[in-house]
Amino acid sequence: MSKQKKNADKEFGLSSWAIDNPSVIYVMIGLFLWIGLSSYFAMPREDFPEIKETKIYISTLYPGNTAEDIERLITDPLEDKLKNVSNLVEITSTSQEDYSIITVEFDEEISVEAAKQKVKDEVDSEKATEDWPIFNNAKVDPNVFDLNLSEQFPIMNINFTGDYPVEKLKEFAEYMQDEIEDLPEVKQVDIRGAQDKEVEIAVDVYKMMAAKVSFDDVLNTIRNGNITMSAGNLKTSGQRRTIRILGEIDDPNELNDFVVKSENGNAVYLKDIAQVTFSEEEKTTYAREFGESVVMLDVKKRAGKNMIEAADKIKAMVKDAKANYYPADLGISIANDSSGRTLNQVDDLVNNIIFGIILVVTVLMFFLGFRNALFVGFAIPMSMFMSFMILSWLGYTLNTMILFGMIMGLGMLVDNGIVVVENVYRLMDEGMPRIEAAKKGIGEIAFPIIISTATTVAAFVPLGLWPGIFGQFMIYFPITLSVVLGSSLFVAIFMNSMLVSNFMDTGEKELTLKQLIRVSIILGGLGILILIFGGAMRGLGTVMIITAAMFWIYKYFLKRWAINFQKNTMVRFENWYERRLMHALRGNNVYWYFGVTVAMLIGAFMLFGVSISTQRTKIEFFPDTIPNEIYVYIEYPQGTSIEKTNELTQAIEQRVYTIVNSDKYTDAKGDKNYLVESAVSQVGVVQGIPKQMEDLLLKCPIAESLRSLCGSLNTEMVWTQRSSGKISRNP
């Protein structure tokens, strides 16, 4: 057999096997559809991918010591112990009054869990030494932890307002806090804007001196009197029972009757030398919504859990509590709900899939006919379901980077299906039988589409090699794109090959009106039911309804245009292309065409360089976009009172609200603000992005207008924004 004949008759083994075993492929299609659909619903939804820095943090609290003592007693011994840890890159530390924080950075060859365990072992070893400081009769306990970016941002704030004292609002918030923290999707819930209560014993030094009582006497009296202890056990009635001595107080006023000292029958009570009060701790947190004081809950999601599912459960809890537990006049509002943005991104993906199917089928039916175009349209949802199945198996979540990769891959995955269907269609149009055309047609183009897919994936591989934190973000993009394109290749070789070998036809089959009505009733009826009652599967109902409508549109409107395009327009275009190709290959024209092409390529590079040098084309890492949220971080020098920081925050709030509440952003009644959905302020413990994540942060142009409002205030300010999964900063 000649080489030319062998190449003409070659087949691709995998596709030929699929064509010869259609039952297996049908089962495979059903399994992949079911598993893919289940994976789509089961995959957790979250805003950011789970990013773990190879940095371990050691925080140590040692009250009553200066920064110098903290460094000498805590920081230096720990640093000396950690210097010899393997895979270590850098150790940085900060020692301040009462507190030490050490950051230990490792290289990327070690996992976060292994690095954390190494640091814990070294810290425990140093803690066991005799020189380690002691506080309240126990050794100071350093806290070793790592940070996960997806757990740092609250997914929502729940605000409690009403004509109640702060203590009562805090009780309401604590009830909801306990309920929400029981959810497996929630890591922690913090209360802002309310303080815990404490017992304060204000002793009178002069009365102590007169009664000859020392501070140790007071401390020992309270320590020994406020205790519940075991008193052994007692055997009675044939059973052994444990005996406890209950000494813990329930009412702080009981402390007044504690005997501090007794001599010669004269007892000195605590109330004789001190005043006992039970009140809020010193103010350490403020919370406001649109400038009004609230008690606020910060809800943070656990990494790898479904944000949308968590938000839905929390909203259901709030609704149920408002109806059955809380008083009717208590105001509860939910602000900064991040689940809506993530849900919109998922909905955008579903809409793009539906719209992609419609566009692909519409365009291809002019070239191949409506029936054959459906083969390529089938490849879109099938490839996506396979991608969901694989990504779920890899343990990934539906986040910004995954969705971005899937949406970009959506425009590429139809290429393989188009090539397969068109080549088989061409051979059948030349008179070859359907099965033979499918086997030989796919055999001709199998290796080209495999190589084409591999080169497309290879172009995105460098994004996965990006080092550092951004590399951990970007690696999801090439992986997702590889999965999507690989799935489309699998569908083209196995499933499309089987389908075209059984159902492809070069002629246009005429549907009778009766058949058209029957198909429309089946597809449209099922589609309407799914659209109304399908919940998260409403997209499938939309596709079925549109497919039914497309049958009518194609039969009575587009069919004659499609046939005219295939028999006239395409023929003229092919003839014109053939003439141009023959002209290009005639004589020395080859060199002219090649020279002009190279000159145009060089000219394009030169024009692009000129455009960059003249700043007509600007280069930036991320495009300027209008963010969904703006974060303003305000920091005074260490030691500044919280009251002063709160005054500054209120001043900024007033200037901002003067703008956002102006008439052009609100309705006539002033009830609806079209610019701002929610605005909350928190003063106290540092919120949101930690300092160690600053290498992620970039320029924030949108904050300039806000900065102009606050530029006259003498303080260091950190402005951040978050939009489309991006974090940016401008100090």
Structural description of this entry:
This protein is of the alpha+beta class and 731 residues long. It folds into 5 domains: 3-48 and 341-613, Multidrug efflux transporter AcrB transmembrane fold (Up-down Bundle); 55-146, Alpha-Beta Plaits (2-Layer Sandwich); 154-196 and 283-337, Multidrug efflux transporter AcrB pore domain like (Alpha-Beta Plaits, 2-Layer Sandwich), CATH 3.30.70; 198-280, Multidrug efflux transporter AcrB TolC docking domain, DN and DC subdomains (2-Layer Sandwich), CATH 3.30.2090; 629-730, no CATH class. A hairpin with a 2-residue loop joins strand 10 (229-236) and strand 11. Helix 12 runs antiparallel to helix 14 (414-429) and helix 18 crosses helix 19. Mean pLDDT is 80; it is low at 686-731.
List keywords for this structure.
alpha+beta, Multidrug efflux transporter AcrB transmembrane fold, disordered C terminus, 4-stranded antiparallel beta sheet, Alpha-Beta Plaits, 22 strands, 731 residues, 53% helix, 5 domains, 22 helices, 17% strand
Helical stretch tally: 22
Structural class: alpha+beta
Oligomer: single chain
Strand content: 15-25%
The mean pLDDT is 80
CATH class of the largest domain: Mainly Alpha
Q: What fraction, in percent, of the residue positions are helical?
A: 40-55%
Query: CATH H-level name of the largest domain... which superfamily?
Result: Multidrug efflux transporter AcrB transmembrane domain
Radius of gyration: 35 Å
Q: Report the biggest beta sheet as strand number plus sense, adding barrel if it closes.
A: 4 strands, antiparallel
Second-tier CATH architecture of the largest domain? Up-down Bundle
Low-confidence stretches: 686-731
**Order of the strands making up the biggest sheet:** 2-3-1-6
